Amino acid sequence: MKKKTFLVTLFLFIVFINSSMLIVSFITLRERLAAEREKVLAEHYVISSGLIKDMQAVDNRGGDVEASMDELMRTYARYSQNRDNELAVSCDGKWIWWAGETAPTENPGSLAGQANQSGRMVFVRSKPSWKLCVYGRFPAPFQAYGFWYCTGLSDTLKGWREMKNMLFGVSAAVTFVLALFLVKFLDILFKPLREISVASRVIAEGDYHARLQVSGKDEIAVMADHFNRMAEQVESHIKLLQETADKKQQFIDNFAHELRTPLTAIFGYAEYLQKAPASEEERLECTQFIMSQCTRLQNMAYQLLDLASLREIEMQLCPVEELFRRVCEIMRVKAEKSGIGLTYVCHGECAAGDMELLITVFSNLIDNALKASSAGSAVRLEAKKAGEQVMLEVKDQGIGMTAEQIAHIKEAFYRVDRSRSRAAGGAGLGLSICEKIVQLHGGSLEFISKSGEGTTARIFLPCEKEEEAEFRT
Could you give the angle at the alpha carbon of 224 between the alpha carbons of 219 and 228, nearest 5°? Predict the structure, then answer.
């Protein structure tokens, strides 16, 4: 690109400057020829006027004008002797006198016929050398006579050629200087493009940290700024894709691990029943364990189906009071068995969403809270206004979580306490399903916790405030 731009620009400049020099030189030549023409006409007029007076004087004395022509022209011949001039006189279409060894090659009769209204004809003759020629007819009573005058153009043409050569020499020097300047200018101009090319190659090779320096406010600076933004977007998308791929790989690893544990147990007990002599009680115990592991696999399959099938929901107005009441009714028996109090506080808000799916979310959150809490503690549900949203909280007084655990808690198959979750039959998919349901509602799910200080799960949903009331179970 740079080479093509250099060659095209240089070619156009050469054409332009040489055409300009050529036009200037031809204009100069035309002006010089015009000045030489005026000079020749003036000299022709002076000589012809003097010659006519001399011819009148001879005619008045009764002399022969044609015979006296050599004497009459002697003075004018001496005038032009040291100059590159030609003098000749014609009479009745014939040259009767000329300075030099030979007469003019032109036909005086033809010249007289071509003369203009003033009786004179001016033209340029190229052979045997360049000369500017004037032929003029005399007025009556000497209309049969004509005067021929030529002056050489060698000095004029020589000066013009020298000037033309000088112009083209200047043109060549200017072209050379321009070529040097153009190389430097294009190097500066294309530097950002080279940097963009290098940065693009670096990014194409997998290094997404390449950026361009932005200076100024011209189009190149704008392009560099847009390139940097594009690189940032590419880098962020690559990171997102990498994180997504890592999560998928982690999901597969966790899923394989979750499958391996019950399958290993099922295979072990089945092999024991097949090969080892066992009592009826042992057989019953083995079959119960196999059924429990199969139930666990079945629950895992159902939860995976729920996670995969959640696509869209039908939004309806869900009173938070009714939501909390129904969830507490569902979870009351489990809470009482664990010796944990379950309360809720509502201020009359209404959330937009699917009531049954929201019940699933809060059932999971309360179930996790009950698992993390000890007997004698309490789990509290509360609704608060948070700007244009309603904030629904589930607070427990359980074992809490560390920051690292909070960062991974919503990942599929992740467990804070693996032994406790497996003992309770959980697959680690509950919070993943909860988060997806909340996202379908246009809300967000977050956890606030410290180890040993309990956990607060917060859900933000669009709301509409109604009456304030408090309910407990």
Answer: 150
> How many helices (H) does the chain have, and how many strands (E)?
12, 13
**Each residue's pLDDT tens digit, 384-430:** 888 888 899 999 988 888 888 888 787 766 666 544 444 444 445 56
Burial of 112 from C-beta contacts in 10 A (0-12 / 13-18 / 19+)? buried
* Count of Cβ atoms closer than 10 Å to residue 421 Cβ: 18
In terms of pTM, does the model score above 0.85? no
Q: Return phi, psi of residue 268, to 5°.
A: -65, -50
Residues facing residue 145 across a β-bridge: 91
Between CA 169 and CA 25 the distance in angstroms is 13
310 C-beta neighbours (distance < 10 Å), count: 14
pLDDT band at 151; cut points 50, 70, 90: confident
With H, G, I as helix, E, B as strand and everything else as coil, classify residue 445: strand
Handedness of CA 301, 302, 305, 310 (dihedral sign): negative
Report which residue type is found at 251: F
Nearest Cα neighbor of 357 from 446, 443, 441, 465 is 441
Alpha-carbon gap, residue 381 to 266, rounded angstroms: 40
